[in-house]
User: What shape does this take?
Amino acid sequence: MSEITRDSEPRRLAAEARDRVRFEEEALDLADQVYRVARRLVSTREEAEDLMQEAYARAFRSWRSYTPGTNLRAWLLRILTNLNIDRARRRQRAPLEQPLEEGDYFLYNKLEQASRDGNVDEERVLERLSQDDVVGALSAVPHDFRDVIVLVDIGDFTYADAAQILDIPIGTVMSRLHRGRRILKGELADRVGEA
Amino acid sequence: MEDLCEKCEEIMQPYLDRELSDEERREAEQHLAGCGFCARRYRFEDSLRKFVRKCCEEPMPAELKAKLAALRTPL
Assistant: This one.
């Protein structure tokens, strides 16, 4: 081993440790935002906490595969959604087939009808739904569809980011969003009916 | 007229998700300005998304952050 190599090795290790610490700090700074999405990908807080810990443990182990300067939040969520999809497969939940003949106006019409007023303000129409109704309705959406809704509507990701995180084409993101939102509206409408 | 709004149906979702090009967005806004039916639906969809987002917010428990920090590689 030459003198130069011997001298450069500690420097390389020190630089690597600095990079790793920086990565870990940046990942932890994003934990609140990642949790906001994780919490709605699964049904319970306990599941979300387990998923977060599993995802962060994996992220810290494989930090070298992250390219600095790219979207770290999306990178973390890609790990997390892959873990979640694996868990769902292990549970072997059968894909839910739901009839979707209702139009997009179904929820609106139902809410409007429920308000017994033909010309109500759109935002006031939503006041008929409680937070539990919304959370319950979202949980009832099959996970393939719910994942894209959560990433785009709650995580504020673009279609392209959501496609990369879930490793599916953008066209699939769009069609799942469209169908998923219709299922969500159907679930919400059911809850208005129960009120 | 509902029957004439097929184009709007197609662009409503990417418009709400801010995924249209500038030109497509202008086209969508022009349509919404002249079509009360679509404008009303657009407002409802927009409110619904904001409402779902607000209802689904749940802050991360403080103890979870500590658990995540403990997963860091020791120096």
Summary: Confidence is low (pLDDT under 50) at residues 97-102 of chain A. The radius of gyration of chain A is 22 Å. The CA atoms of residues 149 and 162 of chain A lie 9 Å apart.
